[in-house]
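Weekly puzzle thread! Below is a chain. First person to post its structure in token form gets bragging rights.
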Amino acid sequence: MNIIITGASGGIGKATAERYLALGHTVYGIDTAPAPFERAGYIHFTADIRNENELPEIRNAAVIFNNAGTQNSEDDIGNNLRGAINVTEKYIRDNPALKSILFNASASAVSGQEFPLYAASKAGLLGYMKNVAIRVAPRGVTCNAISLGGVYTPLNDPVVNDLVLWGRIMDVTPMKKWMTSEEAADWILFLTLTNRSMSGQNLLIDNGEYDLRPTFVWPEEKQG
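Winning reply:
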């Protein structure tokens, strides 16, 4: 199957691309950064998803994984929400091969914590996801979102590499751990390849932090 992954050059996007490739699928990565690797079955496009005119022509995508995003940038709304809308609307159109759409939202979409525009952009994804789910359901296409808590990615280095802040995070994380990108990929493959009946849903996976001890920890001078 043909798989589209935005934000494929690192972190969760890269780990997920590797998993799809290992299963024999063809992966089309879209990112502003260069390709994460050169492998058979992987095609990379350098593009800014905020500009729909930059999006490449990709036919018969079975899976769309809207993963690209920024955190506390100058344009979180454009990158995280508008970009995902551009990608989704382009590749669901006239696409009989489509089977599944997944959005990488965030625990902040549920809690409202973290940076204001980031939280707003991710919460907006959940509303848009439900709208898309309604529209594609008659075609037998599933559409869901995954809202992850802490994940070991370069975006989170400011707290992962700070012993004091990391200690505070673990104090409010009941399971005393974060998720790896590889574990996130497990969920993504399940939702896009195995799942055939759940649609219009958001899965919050955060090691128990939101329901048990909701607290956002970040360097104060970088909170925007």
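Puzzle host: Confirmed. Bonus trivia for everyone else. Residues 2-222 form a domain with the Rossmann fold fold (CATH 3.40.50.720).
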